[in-house]
Specification:
Elements: E1 2-7, H1 13-21, E2 28-32, E3 41-50, E4 53-62, E5 69-76, H2 83-106, H3 121-129, H4 134-143, H5 149-165, E6 176-182, E7 184-185, E8 197-198, H6 203-227, E9 231-238, H7 246-259, E10 268-272, H8 281-289, E11 294-296, H9 304-310, H10 316-328, E12 333-340, H11 347-360, E13 364-369, H12 377-380, H13 392-408, E14 412-417, E15 428-432, H14 439-446, E16 450-455, E17 459-463, E18 470-474, H15 479-507
Parallel strand pairs: 1-2, 1-3, 6-9, 6-16, 7-8, 9-10, 10-11, 11-12, 12-13
Antiparallel strand pairs: 3-4, 4-5, 13-15, 14-15, 17-18
Helix pairs in contact: 1-2, 6-7, 6-15, 7-8, 11-13
């Protein structure tokens, strides 16, 4: 399917193309002021100013003929609106008109409306902070963004749970959280685009990487001590942080206790042990030694053929065995991940995964919906049938199954995010038993404080405490590049932290 959007305002090109792509996951979408000769559907979108508002029109025509489909949206522009606010209203109106035309043509109703961003719950937090009532917020989400009532209710549950778990969520800008990236795995999964390198036969890279990681952590720790800035949470991700040896883990956590000030006041330390084939009794003892009680052990699926297909070289039995081993070693806050829509899986396989999860009952369950990420092996082979996935109706059904199962078993949703090219235009949701929520996931997703990324592929987000503006800095993804540049990466982050926290001090 080739869809072309004829639009004069090229500033809207990306947002409109993202909306059109929701209606056909294999569509090629283009946008521009002229026509595209090979387009099967052409949608002309225009926006005009009115007294006190704007009107957007979308007209969908098909190459094969037939009556055009027309849609119109009118939006009010508040008195005194800035140019940026007026542009936002124009963009929303154009998106809603385009959405209407495509929904009428396809019969597909998009549950998230015109919203294609990663963090929809930020809309609720923003309105909370501005004192807008819940009822007015619902109206905006429904009427302006076209989000359906089910998704609005999910957002509200999540925001309410986040504020119950972290009552001072809106006042943590004076602290930071740390993300520590360890870029090694036993193998790379077919759907993955994280910086993850096969650890086998790479001990030289591992040694060099760990040296740089230790030094970068010391440099950040020194800044924290000088600045008197506290740390709220620490998260070890990757890759798979338990791919390194027990001795290397022990040395890393010892350094953490030495380098990071106020470690006993850190609210949460998480280590992803997502690949069961990396977990050993020795590593679990290291985690317990350093009082790390929250880990992830991720089955993704309980169907062995699926694990083989996506390149996870562990067995279903190994997942269960390592979960039980972690319990024996005192791990009492374990997260597990499941993925909806893995190749070859439908509702029957997902129901089986939920039934197997019920036998273990982890403290939290994160349910991802598969996304075809641009650089993954799965996306590269999407067209040849190797990774055939479920259709939209089955994806929606499995999403509902996850919500029903978690509700029935006492889990509550506490964070949510979305991704480009996510199947069925659905979402990823973290569910947890009350009290077992990941604080880091909430802070990272809602962008309420700066996150300092340390290690390979780690991205830092610096949030201006006055304007809320976010700037980012990404460490190199490849171990060799990181080994050669960690020192400059640490200096760049410290310069950014100085700017952010000087601004915060000046605003007090």
């Amino acid at each position: 399917m080739r869809i072309h959007i004829r639009i004069e305002e090229m500033a809207f090109e990306r947002s409109l193309a993202n909306i059109a792509a929701l209606f056909d996951e294999d569509a090629a979408v283009t946008a521009g002021p002229g026509d595209a000769a090979d387009a099967e559907w052409t949608i002309a979108v225009g926006v005009e100013d009115l007294d006190g508002g704007v009107r957007a029109r979308a007209v969908l025509t098909e190459a094969g003929g037939g009556a055009p489909i027309e849609a119109e949206q009118v939006r009010a522009v508040p008195d005194g609106a800035s140019n940026e606010e007026r542009r936002a209203v124009r963009r929303q109106a154009a998106g809603a008109a385009l959405l209407d035309a495509l929904e009428r043509r396809t019969g597909i109703v998009q549950p998230w409306g015109i919203l294609t961003g990663v963090r929809p719950t930020k809309l609720l937090h923003d309105r909370n902070l501005r004192g807008i009532s819940r009822e007015e917020t619902r109206r905006e989400l429904r009427d302006l963004y076209r989000i359906n009532d089910g998704k609005i209710a999910l957002m509200e549950r999540i925001v309410d749970r986040q504020l119950a778990v972290i009552p001072d969520l809106y006042h943590l800008g004076h602290e930071v959280s740390l993300y520590i990236g360890i870029p090694f795995c036993p193998t790379k999964c077919a759907y993955c685009t994280f910086p993850a390198y096969d650890i086998n036969g790479r001990q030289g890279s591992v040694d060099g990487f760990l040296y740089g990681l230790h030094e970068e952590m010391r440099a950040i720790g020194d800044w924290l001590k000088r600045s008197g800035v506290g740390v709220t949470t620490i998260y070890y991700g990757g890759g798979t942080p338990t791919s390194i040896s027990a001795e290397e883990m022990d040395a890393l956590y010892a350094l953490m206790y030495d380098a990071i000030p106020g470690i006993d006041r850190v609210r949460e330390i998480t280590v992803e042990a997502g690949r069961p084939d990396t977990i050993t009794p020795e590593k679990l003892e290291v985690l317990r030694k350093w009082k790390i009680g929250r880990i992830s052990i991720n089955p993704q699926s309980y169907t062995q053929a699926t694990l083989d297909r996506i390149g996870r070289w562990h067995t279903v039995e190994e997942t269960i065995e390592k979960f039980q081993l972690a319990r024996k070693h005192g791990m009492n806050n374990i997260n597990m991940d499941l993925i909806i829509g893995l190749p070859g899986e439908g509702p029957e396989e997902f129901a089986y995964s939920l039934a197997e999860t019920e036998k273990l009952m982890p403290e939290s369950l994160t349910v991802h919906t598969l996304s075809f990420k641009r650089a993954s092996e799965m996306t590269r082979h999407k067209g040849d049938g190797k990774y055939r996935v479920a259709g939209r109706e089955d994806i929606v059904q499995m999403t509902a199954m996850a919500m029903e199962w978690t509700e029935a078993h006492g889990y509550v949703p506490y964070y949510l995010y979305r991704q480009k090219n996510i199947l069925g235009n659905q979402e990823n949701v973290g569910y947890a038993k009350p009290g077992a929520e990941s604080l880091y996931n909430i802070l990272m997703m809602e962008e309420m404080q700066s996150i300092i990324g340390i290690g390979c592929g780690a991205t830092s987000k610096f949030i201006d405490p006055v304007t809320g503006e976010i700037t980012r800095h990404a460490n190199p993804k490849e171990p060799k590049a990181y080994i050669e540049s960690w020192e400059r990466a640490a200096e760049t982050k410290i310069e950014a932290l100085d700017r952010v926290f000087r601004a915060g001090a000046a605003s007090v």
